[in-house]
Design a protein that fits this description.
CATH class of the largest domain: Alpha Beta
Number of strands: 10
Number of helices: 8
Strand order of the largest sheet: 1-5-4-2-3
CATH superfamily of the largest domain: CobE/GbiG C-terminal domain
Helix content: 25-40%
Order of helices and strands: EHEEEEEHEHEHHHHHEE
Radius of gyration: 20 Å
CATH topology of the largest domain: Nucleotidyltransferase, domain 5
Mean pLDDT: 87
Strand content: 15-25%
Distance between the termini: 40 Å
Low-confidence stretches: 208-220
C-alpha cells in the first residue's frame, strides 16, 4: 500500500533552502512508507508537530537497520558519495551571519569571492547564509550593497561602540585606531546573531532553548564558526575581512 505521506507534505519553514541530494530517491522511500532518518542540527523543530500519525520518519539513530533514506537539516555543505545506495538530501535553514569588514572601494566580486572561499574551506552551505553584518559606516559601501541586493541578503549594521563592546577572539588595535572598534567582522557577525535572538517573536522564542542546545552541539558555547579571515587580490582593489557566526534561530524574513 502506497503511503500518502510524502516529502512535499512536510511543513518545512519557508526560509529553508533545498540543498544537494537525491530528492527523488528520498521522496520515493517516503511514498513507499519506508523508514527515513532525519538528522536535524539547526533550525526550528515546530514542523515535527504537524506530522501525521504513522509517519515513517525516524530520529536519533532509531531503527538503523531499517533506514532506507536520510534527511540532513544543517548549515553544512555535505558531499554525498554518488555510489551510495542510501538516498540522502539536505535542507539548509538560513542561520549563518557573515560579518564583513572592508576597505573603501572594495568590489562586490572580491567580497563575494572571499565569502565563497570561506564557505568552501569550512564546508558551509552558502544557501544557509541569512545575511551580512558590518559597521554602520559601511551601510552605503557599494560592494556590500551590490552583493546584498544581488543575493537578496539583508544587511545589518551596528555602531562602533556596540561592536567594541563585544568580546572577540581576534581584536585589533590597528582597526580600533581607524574605526573606533577593535573588531568589525567578528563583532558584527556576533551582534547579528544576538539581535536575531532578541527580536524573535513569541512563537519562535518557545524554540530558543532547543536551538541553543543544537548550536552548542555543533560549535560549543561560541557561535563564532569562522574567525576573521583577510582576503586581498592583485586584480581587484581593496581588501575584505570575513567572519561567520551561527544563530540559534533561522532567518525567515
Amino acid at each position: 500500500m502506497i503511503n500518502e505521506f510524502t516529502l512535499e507534505r512536510l511543513d518545512i519553514p519557508g526560509g529553508w533552502i533545498r540543498g544537494e541530494g537525491d530528492w527523488a530517491g528520498v521522496a520515493a522511500a517516503m511514498k513507499r512508507g519506508e523508514t527515513v532518518e532525519v538528522i536535524q542540527e539547526v533550525g526550528s523543530t515546530l514542523w515535527k508537530t504537524t506530522l501525521p500519525e504513522g509517519h515513517s520518519l525516524s530520529w536519533n539513530g532509531d531503527n538503523l537497520s531499517t533506514i532506507k533514506a536520510r534527511i540532513w537539516i544543517s548549515f553544512t555543505q555535505r558531499r554525498f558519495a554518488p555510489e551510495s545506495a542510501l538516498p540522502k538530501v539536505q535542507w539548509h535553514p538560513r542561520v549563518l551571519w557573515v560579518g564583513i569588514g572592508c576597505e573603501g572601494g572594495t568590489s562586490r566580486e572580491l567580497i563575494e569571492s572571499a565569502i565563497t572561499q570561506v564557505c568552501h574551506a569550512y564546508d558551509l552551505a552558502s544557501s544557509a547564509i541569512a545575511g551580512i553584518a558590518t559597521i554602520d559606516t559601511k551601510a552605503n559601501e557599494a560592494g556590500i550593497v551590490e552583493l546584498c541586493q544581488g543575493r537578496n541578503w539583508p544587511l545589518k549594521t551596528f555602531a562602533a561602540n556596540i561592536l567594541n563592546s563585544v568580546e572577540v577572539p581576534n581584536p585589533s588595535n590597528i582597526v580600533a585606531q581607524k574605526v573606533a572598534t577593535k573588531s568589525v567582522a567578528e563583532a558584527a557577525a556576533l551582534c547579528a546573531v544576538r539581535e536575531e535572538i532578541l527580536t524573535a517573536d513569541e512563537c519562535r522564542l518557545t524554540q530558543i532553548s532547543i536551538h541553543l542546545r543544537s548550536s552548542a552541539f555543533i560549535c560549543g558555547s561560541n557561535p563564532l564558526l569562522v574567525p576573521k579571515k583577510i582576503f586581498r587580490s592583485g586584480e581587484k582593489p581593496g581588501s575584505v575581512t570575513v567572519a561567520v557566526a551561527v544563530c540559534a534561530i533561522e532567518y525567515l524574513g
